[in-house]
TrEMBL record:
The chain crosses the membrane at residues 12-34, 40-65, 77-95, 101-119, 126-145, 189-209, 221-239, 245-269, 281-306, 332-351. Residues 5-215 form the Heparan-alpha-glucosaminide N-acetyltransferase catalytic domain. Keywords: Membrane, Transmembrane, Transmembrane helix. This is DUF1624 domain-containing protein. It comes from the Bacteria. Signal peptide: none annotated.
Length: 358
């Protein structure tokens, strides 16, 4: 029998989504910690998407604990792929299907989710699922090392990636990230496979949280999180943290960080009740967490609209973003303006128990 709803999952997911709204709306220039690393490196922004993926895995375990509804799973996979293509059209502001990017964040969710369910039908025990998660990163590390012998410094570079050749073969240049001009696709097929490390680990943790026969769950989450961080740091000695290629060190460390944070919140909220569900911060983050899909992707659509739609103001054509900048010249203030907008949306929908799911 599944226990009551685990509040800490919604709270952590909500924190990740609030952070994603802020960094996405922050205008370019300065604040390097709130930007993606150019190539190698790890910033706060780099942590957001893999954390969201890990929590996606946690949710998959809870949703499918009593068995998989295959019809619902295939419908969800199809819709995520379809919405991913529509999302790409909107953010690229083009309906030209001949140059439409086939890969993307929603597509990664669809494929990683489907593969996770298929794999966990074959590998059912929690320790083996965790081992499978680590094994995927280990095999990917060998792949990167083995295919980077001709790259500068013998490590993967933006213009020297074997994985991009696979993406080209599957999708062709014009249907990849920036039409393939960067030499890599951050949500390419090989990256989707590497991201299984995050989703599978999250799935294992989801099983731990809902199993009543497992004691000391907080300590278990902290130890597993610490183990993933340790292995990721060891792997970074060969291939450093790199979100663009979803390097093994990157996937393992971000997974570990997410699990460690979840363990801390689980202890505070679900175990000891130091933070109750009536706490204003908990309510606020839960509102974001329960509508995470809507806000996580809705924010990018909204930002696209305000940067593309023009208005005639004082006899001059200006984008909505330009108009907003005149009223809120501060970059941080501008970002918080969007946080405020989505806060109102999230709270109103939460109070009315309206949640968008696929």
């Amino acid at each position: 029998m599944i226990q009551k709803r685990i509040e800490s999952i919604d709270v952590l997911r909500g924190f990740v989504v609030v952070l994603s709204v802020f960094v996405s709306a922050l205008p370019y220039g300065g604040y390097p910690l709130f930007r993606h690393a150019e190539w190698y490196g790890l910033t706060i922004t780099d942590f957001i998407f893999p954390a969201f993926l890990t929590l996606f895995g946690v949710g998959l375990a809870i949703a499918n604990f009593k068995g998989v509804n295959w019809k619902k799973l295939m419908r969800r996979t199809f819709l995520l792929l379809l919405f991913g293509l529509l999302f790409n059209m909107i953010v690229s502001w083009s309906i030209d299907i001949h140059n439409l990017r086939f890969t993307g964040v929603l597509q990664l969710f669809a494929i990683a989710g489907l593969f996770t369910i298929l794999l966990t039908r074959l590998v059912t025990r929690i320790p083996y699922i965790l081992l499978l998660s680590i094994s995927i990163s280990t095999l990917y590390l060998f792949f990167l090392i083995g295919t980077s012998q001709t790259c500068g410094g013998l490590i993967p570079q933006a213009d020297c990636l074997a994985s991009f050749k696979i993406d080209r073969f599957l999708f062709t240049d014009v249907h990849l990230y920036r039409a393939g001009s960067s030499g890599f696709d951050p949500e390419g097929f090989v990256n989707m496979i590497s991201a299984l490390t995050n989703v599978l680990a999250g799935y294992a943790i989801g099983l731990i949280l809902i199993r009543k026969d497992i004691n000391k769950k907080t300590m278990t989450l902290l130890l597993i999180g610490g183990l993933f961080i340790l292995i990721g740091c060891v792997f970074s000695q060969w291939i450093d943290f790199n979100k663009r290629i979803w390097s093994p060190s990157f996937s393992l460390v971000t997974t570990g960080m997410t699990l460690f944070l979840l363990g801390c919140l689980y202890w505070l909220i679900d175990k000891k009740n130091f933070l109750t569900k009536q706490n204003p911060v908990v309510v606020y983050l839960t509102a974001f967490g329960k509508n995470s899909l809507l806000i996580y992707f809705g924010k990018l659509i909204l930002l696209t609209f305000v940067s593309k739609i023009t208005l005639n103001v004082i006899g001059m054509d200006s984008t909505i973003a330009d108009v907003l900048h005149r009223f809120v010249p501060s970059k941080v203030g501008y970002a918080f303006l969007f946080v405020l907008f989505w806060s109102v949306v999230a709270i109103i929908m939460h109070l009315n128990k309206k949640y968008v799911k696929v």
